[in-house]
Design brief:
It contains three helices and no strands. The protein is mostly helical. The longest helix has 46 residues, at 30-75. Keywords: Ion channel, Ion transport, Membrane, Transmembrane, Transmembrane helix, Transport.
Length: 103
């Protein structure tokens, strides 16, 4: 066959790329094996801790967004409706009523 009679196939390169297999990749030296074990012992748990932290951050963001949308839906504004009062002030008011309002 000469070059003029060959058919051009644009997907031939992509198809042959995905058919190549390289086998299992593993270190062949003892140093490489030791480094891989140390990485597995420390790296995988560290990755899971970081992944959990990102999950917490994502959950906080979703909760904040949900509270904002609920507040906007029910009140029509972005402001908080209730103000929170510290517990100490409530306890002092209750103690004041118990001892001084009865007399």
């Amino acid at each position: 066959m000469d070059a003029c009679n060959e058919r051009f196939d644009p997907f031939e390169n992509i198809d042959s790329h995905y058919r190549m297999r390289y086998g299992h990749i593993s270190p062949s030296t003892n140093t490489g094996r030791a480094i891989t074990i140390v990485y597995a012992i420390f790296g995988i748990p560290m990755f899971l801790i970081i992944l959990a932290d990102f999950g917490k951050l994502f959950t906080r963001g979703i909760k904040f967004l949900w509270a904002f949308v609920r507040r906007l839906y029910y009140t029509g504004s972005c402001r908080k409706v209730r103000r929170t009062v510290p517990v100490q002030i409530l306890l002092l008011e209750e103690i004041w009523e118990v001892f001084f309002e009865k007399a």
